[in-house]
Each structure stands twice: as structure tokens, then as C-alpha cells.
Design goal:
By secondary structure, the protein is mainly beta. It has 2 helices and 10 strands; from the N terminus they run E-E-H-H-E-E-E-E-E-E-E-E. Helix 1 runs antiparallel to helix 2. The radius of gyration is 14 Å and the shape is globular.
Length: 141
């Protein structure tokens, strides 16, 4: 993460998107439309119903250069589905000694010369996608 700060504390984790949010309008103007809409969606960083915090990566499906990531909450129904088009790189890495990525802490979308780079920090790992654009769909009850 370039702007979002995540620090482990004695009580868990401190999550601070302030620096990212301070730069978001300038960054959003350089993002593809879908990525900008998702990053600027009301509630995305407000730790409410439309914040990816605490979601768990349930499924990843890559077909050609299209990737779909499905995230669930505390029930098995998908809560957030992100479709990436024009994928040029996709990595999912668990921290050393971990066998489960854990739940989402926060994410950050930045401009990239190929479109955008979406980094998702999980408790025990990171997922990163570089793509032409993305579309996020919430499936809230």
C-alpha cells in the first residue's frame, strides 16, 4: 500500500485510509471509470455495509484476461464481486508461515500505465491486480 496505513497493535490492527482519501480526487481523475467509481463509492472507506473490510476472498476465476474475485462476509453468500478486464498481472501471496489469507483489511486503487492497480491487504497476505479497468458489484440483502 502506498497511502493506506495498516499497523498491528496490541489490540489488533490500526487501519487508516486518511492519506489515500486526501489524494483520492486527484488519483480518481487518472483512474479508468469503473475503478474510479468503486474507489469513490460512498461508504467504501467508512467501515459500513459497502466497505470491503472483514470480507473473505471466496473465489478467484481467471478466463483469458478477465478475472473475477468473489468475497463473502460471515455467511456463504457473495457480498462483493469484482470483475477485472484486461488483466496484465494477478498475484495472491500469503504472509510467511500462513496458509490462509484471512479477511480483508483495506484496499487501495492507484493509476497504472496499463489502467489501474488494485491492491487488497488481508490479515495474512495481499492480492494485487493490474488491469485495464474493474467493475465492482455489491450483493447486499
Amino acid at each position: 500500500m502506498k497511502y493506506i496505513k495498516i499497523e498491528q497493535t496490541e489490540l489488533g490492527f490500526s487501519l487508516d485510509p486518511t492519506a489515500y482519501l486526501d489524494r483520492l480526487e486527484a488519483i480518481a481523475a487518472q483512474l479508468p471509470p469503473g475503478a474510479a467509481a468503486f474507489a469513490r463509492e460512498p461508504g467504501h472507506y467508512a467501515f459500513g455495509d459497502r466497505c470491503p473490510k472483514d470480507l473473505k476472498l471466496d473465489r478467484a476465476s481467471l478466463v483469458g484476461t478477465a478475472l473475477e474475485l468473489s468475497f463473502v462476509g460471515y455467511t456463504p453468500e457473495p457480498r462483493l464481486v469484482i470483475r477485472y478486464d484486461g488483466v496484465v498481472s494477478f498475484t495472491a501471496a500469503a504472509d510467511e508461515g500462513e496458509d490462509d489469507l484471512g479477511r480483508v483489511q483495506l484496499d487501495e486503487i492507484l493509476p497504472h500505465d496499463r489502467g489501474c492497480r488494485h491492491e487488497i491487504k488481508l490479515i495474512a497476505g495481499t492480492v494485487a491486480v493490474v488491469c485495464a479497468d474493474l467493475t465492482a458489484k455489491w450483493t447486499l440483502p
